[in-house]
User: What shape does this take?
Amino acid sequence: MAGVDKAREDKVPFLERSKDFLLNNMVTVMFAVLSVGAYFAAKVTPAYVLNEMFTRFGRNTCLVLSLVVPVACGLGLNFGIVVGAMAAQIGVFAVSAVEMTGFSSMLVCILITTPIAVLFGYCAGLLFNRMRGSEMIGGMVLRYCADGLYQLLFLFVFGGLIKIDNNRLMIMGGVGVKNTIDLKGSLGYAIDELPLLRTLEIALAAVLIIQVYNLMTAAKQSREHKRKQYIVNIALCVGVYGVTWVPYFSTMLTQTRWSLLTAVEGLCFFGIAYLIIGAVYAKIFYSKPFHFLRLGVQGGVLVALYLVTYVDSVYRIFLQVKVPVTTYLVVGGFCAINAALFKTQLGQNMRTVGQGASVAASAGINVDKTRIIAVILSTVLAAWGQLISLQNIGTLQTYGAHDTVGQFSIAALLVGGASVQRATNTHALLGVLLFHTLFVLSPPAGAQLFGDPVIGENFRVFLAYGVIALALAMHAWKVGPKQQVRRARTESKPPSQTEEGVAESAS
Assistant: This one.
């Protein structure tokens, strides 16, 4: 019978499977189609689109990635990340007031912003625990409440109760902060203009210190296999640092912005080296077999990507597009944080809470505490993401920079295929790519089709709010029947067999 059922599943018509795929991913498909249509209607050059896309992708992705954790924990779409953006703007103002410059200003800004974001996230978590089932509405209300306090702080407290002797920041009379603060020369481009070589040196030094410590510990405990592994790790760190002295790579790593051509060449070279070294390393120390087919396919893709750069039209376009490499490295770090978190016990607890609070409580998980930690992490990541965004823009719109952070980030996540119940790094990355591609192309498309770019701008704002409304409607449509079935099952069971009864007996 199992074989018959399998055969029936294999014979599902192609049209039916395509229909299910389109239904489950209709927002993503719609944005992809609109983006292609807008590109041809806008009549812009590929270099213009790529330049704008790489700038916006680096600027906004970290904010969208901050939404993944609360969705996994069952909190839904966290409109409350706006308070994280406000924490970042308080830190930016503090650094600007003391006239700090360079990358050190970014480090100090992070030190100021992080504890504020933790406090805001903790308060938001307490609120969401009081509003279970209505966290998204609570996040919207929190955004407006926090905005009122934020306006009070910047309009009356700064300059009134707290004296700020800086005419560049304060309005005439010394009470209240100016609408726009120029960050160029201070926090502006602090990460975008940071050479990758400096970041690599710091990372290698940190890894080297950790490996030396592990080697000393392994030597004391007579763990011969681990000792050899740590020696190899140290040798790899030294080898990578040695590569930075090769003239070609030294020139590449000291540049703050790479052309897309250089970025692709670097990706292909380091990618192939990583595949080979990683496979050998796994074979020696973890006894993992070589997967020649997988390595061949991955290496072949990288080689094919490199060969594409020899096409004359592609070469000329890639040469014109500039990429802030360190910023993209930070985006990769945010993705790694999310991925690593869900491999820990805390991350597994968050997933369990997201699947069912009653079941999680019966398993001994402190549901309230786990939810608060998820909100704090989301708020802190959003604050850091706002810092990356502001340094890339180069100016701070004091009273409006945080206004659309929540709506546009959530819309981008949903465009990538996420839902109220499920979100991943892939959804965030794909969503930013599609959402901001349409954002770039809408004004010129509106100018070409209707003679007015404002029409295109209004259209993209309409789409942002429309996507959120559609996602919430689909969530209500899917959850409604499930709740009715669950309620009917609960009513038909004795109290001792319900989730609530299990949780009470466990407590």
